[in-house]
Amino acid sequence: DGGITQSPKYLFRKEGQNVTLSCEQNLNHDAMYWYRQDPGQGLRLIYYSQIVNDFQKGDIAEGYSVSREKKESFPLTVTSAQKNPTAFYLCASSIDHTTRPQHFGDGTRLSIL
Amino acid sequence: DAKTTQPPSMDCAEGRAANLPCNHSTISGNEYVYWYRQIHSQGPQYIIHGLKNNETNEMASLIITEDRKSSTLILPHATLRDTAVYYCIVRVEGDYKLSFGAGTTVTVRA
Q1: How far apart are CA A79 and CA B34, in angstroms?
Q2: Given phi > 0 = left and psi -120 to 50 = alpha, else beta, which region is B41?
Q3: Per the count of CB atoms within 10 A, which of A21, A32, A105, B45 is most buried?
Q4: Is A13 at the interface with chain B, CB within 8 A?
């Protein structure tokens, strides 16, 4: 089945450690996105990519980094510079970034030890 | 993007239609209305979207008023699995971002 796979589902990070969240899609979508969701709040855009080897900062990019070396993959690294990384991270993709809907993975919940 | 207003919560009886309202009185001509839902601890699920015409798919129907200032999402036969937070979002064509508000918590009761 086509879809978006995020792994791991749960992730724990020690203080000062970088961690990478995986996002893979087999929908042949050009555009991919990373959002962050905090308890009881809406989603906030971290980064997005319209095409391979290109990505743009969203509203809250500080402390995060991404790469888009393959169409299928858009990993997100949460760096030690992100002071409040505990959140639910959601990856999405869409055929393009116009009116086509974004489809989401099931998320990764990151916690700090 | 135009802001949306949704009731914070609503209950629905299993097997009955669920009608979820959304106000977007400041919507502009090039903004689409999208509906998503999110079940606890899962990613949001796309339901339907439209510009000005009513839309229907296998999940739901979207009714947009003629002046486009409000819309209603209709789940024709609600089941317990439809219990979720439902989000109404308006988005400009070409905008890369979805802006989720607080949504409506829908509880389907047996």
Answers
A1: 33
A2: left
A3: A32
A4: no
Copy the structure tokens of residue B38: 């999110």
DSSP A70: B
Structure tokens at A66: 């991404």
Per-residue pLDDT of B55-75, as tens digits, reads 999 999 999 999 999 999 999
Q: What is the pLDDT of residue B96?
A: 83
- The residue written with tokens 């974004």 in the block is A102
Give the nearest chain B residue to A59 (CA atoms).
Answer: B97
Q: In whole angstroms, what separates CA B102 from the centre of its chain? A: 12
Token pair of B97, please? 């971002």
Dist. CA B3–CA B24, nearest whole Å: 6
The chain A residue lying nearest B90, using CA atoms, is A99
